[in-house]
Amino acid sequence: MTISHPFSRLLTRLSVGRKLMLIYLLDLTAVIFVSSILINEKFIAIDFARKEIAGNATSPACAMA
User: CB 3.0–4.6 Å: which of 8, 14, 53, 59 could bond 3 by disulfide?
Assistant: First the structure.
């Protein structure tokens, strides 16, 4: 059985250590990507909470007028 796909040929030429390093780097990029999405979502939530606090601080002043 011959392997005709160029990516498969590249993988067969790599040593086991290089294959493991490739797997590790691909997993690491996925973790970094998901972490950045979660961190960004937390910053959005913090910004929303700050706006809510600012809105609550001005709300009693409007009620008294």
Answer: 8
